Amino acid sequence: MNTCCARWMLLPVAVALSLGMASAGWSQPFEPPGGGFGSGLVGLVAETENVVTVAAQFTARRAGTPAELFVTAVIKPGWHIYSITQPSGGPIATQIKLNPSDAYGLAGDFRPSPASERKRDAVFDNLMVETHHGTVTWRAPIELSAGIDPTTLKIEGALTVQPCDANSCRPPHDVPFAAMLSHKATAFDPDALVIDADEQIKRLPFWLAVVMGLLGGLILNLMPCVLPVIGLKLLSFIEQAGHDRRHAFLLNVWYSLGLLSVFLLLATLAVFAGFGWGQLFSLQGFNITLAAVVFVMGLSFLGVWEIPIPGFVGHGKVTELGEQEGFAGALSKGVLTTILATPCSAPFLAPALTWAVAQPPLQTYAIFTSVGVGMASPYLLIGAFPKLIRFLPKPGAWMETFKQIMGFVLLGTVVFLLTFIRWSYVVPTIGLLFGLWGACWWIGRVSPTANGGAKARAWLEAVTLAAVIWIFMFPGINGVLPGVPVGGLQEVMEARLQLTIAKGAAVPADQAEHRLPWQPFTRAALEELIAARKTVLVDFTANWCLTCKTLAKTVLNTSKVRELVDANGVATLHADWTDAEPEVTEMLELLGSKQVPVLAIFPAANPNRPIVLRGAYTQQTLLKKLREAGPSMKAS
């Protein structure tokens, strides 16, 4: 007989026997004296105890958190049980029953963690079958009667399960449990997350959030992301020596307006699109466009062509004070400086923005504006008091050399931006840059004294050339930017990428020794580790986040951290937010963040109260928080 059919023909008999046991008041597997049901069936029931084991505990009511009951089933490998929401007409749903008592009662439904696996089964006419494997914990709120001492209370009940493997099923069976008070939750529930740091951030008064935004914006000027364009601003300060004080101040005002315009755009994206700080760099089209803009700027500084923005680079020799920086050039530099600053974080910035994104739109705009004002404040101050920069050298022929050096710095920035782009897009992007190089050269070769028609013709020909190369490198309906690279080229790039992954990247011996044993983050992996009572460290990072990379090298992957992680049996997960992966975005939002870096430590004893570090942090702080989280625990 077909095994599957035989298995379900036996099921009604097993159910009837189980119901008979339950009606007789038996809570344990029933075995009459002398084995009245036959040794085969008795063996099946007895073995069920080895297939599914159950443990339970409950927590008392805490501030903002109800009392809860946790029931955990550990299922033998190769076996599974069915969910408590399994639709009728198929396998037997799991049930959780509490013994009647005046001391306690359920105050809500049980919820599983991790969620059940769901798929349609042809055996049941394509009915949706919901199964659990390994370890599953159900939790439900409970109410304790007045006057009950939870420390002496025992909540008793039974889990009714039907274990099955690939070929057969055991009869439905009650496995009793007795839950005692525990002060520590052991199941992960996103709806019950309590984050101490967030509680502190949420209580920030508005004025303090504004001050933190101002300080964070001010410090942002010192972050490495801004360095490639600081030289541009130094040139403009020197050029301003030839202007009157009022004109120099206005130039800095326009530069600041460029800064603020980007912050207002970021605030708009945060309010209406849910974008976090730096998240624009998760868009491939944005990265490619920014690389192209910085590249053509670098070519302009190297003299290949002149950007058609008055005063952006200056025409001819930069020492000619009659053709100094214009308002449009100052505005453009402010925009570019801010965009390049967003992959970096700064002290005070993370808590200010975390507070801002949880507020009504008006307050969100206010905090983003305060960050912009903080970043612009040095330039406004220098514009108002030019003597503050009298230490800078006077304008001279050296500025032409300095300008060209800055051109190479900008080209180096393009290389840095290429690291943000997916491997399959890197070669097409480089091809596009070569096309833009040719177009800029074509424009730059036209004599400055040529008539307007010749210049217009050169521009039309150059734009046509750039457009043709653009379309060739990024064809497809989706567009010009996010489209798919040339088929054959994409296949070559993907093949090389897979080969690189297969071989593994070469890591220096000293780094490999201290590198944490990172595993890719998934929600299922996190819940599985928590169910196994592991303390879990999750690093939320992105390729475009320079602060994240600095922390990884100088704090995370270091000998002291590795020693403590190994000693405490801490599991480490790497949550890559480079392309704004939905699972990572969802978890960041659960933790109250819309930017990286974020480090979350889920203690084995209480995973619903994770320890969260936002922005930059020190090795000393990380070690302290890991000790607070405690080691992994033995599975129940």
Q: What is the mean pLDDT?
A: 78
Q: How many strands, what sense, and barrel or not for the largest sheet?
A: 8 strands, mixed
Structure class: alpha+beta
The shape, in one word, is elongated
Number of strands: 16
Number of helices: 20
Low-confidence stretches: 1-48, 314-323, 477-488, 499-511
Q: Helicity level, as a percent range?
A: 40-55%
Provide the β-strand percentage band. Answer: 5-15%
Q: Note the gap between the termini.
A: 40 Å
| Overall tally of structural domains | 4
Q: Tell me the Rg in angstroms.
A: 32 Å
Brief sketch in words of this structure:
The protein has 636 residues and is α+β, with helices and mostly antiparallel strands. 47% of the residues lie in helices and 14% in strands.
Report on the architecture of this protein.
It is a single chain. With 636 residues, this protein is of the alpha+beta class. The protein folds into 4 domains: 3-187, Thiol:disulfide interchange protein DsbD, N-terminal domain (Immunoglobulin-like, Sandwich), CATH 2.60.40; 196-421, no CATH class; 422-505, no CATH class; 509-629, Glutaredoxin (3-Layer(aba) Sandwich). Helices cover 47% and strands 14% of the residues. It has 20 helices and 16 strands. The chain has helices at 3-23, 39-51, 196-202, 206-220, 227-239, 245-273, 284-301, 327-341, 349-356, 361-384, 398-418, 423-444, 452-473, 487-503, 509-514, 523-531, 546-556, 559-568, 582-590, 619-629; strands at residues 52-59, 68-75, 81-82, 95-98, 104-106, 111-113, 117-121, 127-132, 135-144, 155-161, 173-181, 518-520, 536-541, 571-576, 598-602, 611-614. The strands form 3 sheets. Strands 1, 2, 4, 5, 6, 9, 10 and 11 form an 8-stranded mixed beta sheet that branches. A 5-stranded mixed beta sheet has the order 12-14-13-15-16, with helices on both faces. A hairpin with an 8-residue loop joins β15 (598-602) and β16. α4 (206-220) crosses α10. The longest helix is centred in the middle third of the chain and has 29 residues, at 245-273. The radius of gyration is 32 Å and the shape is elongated.
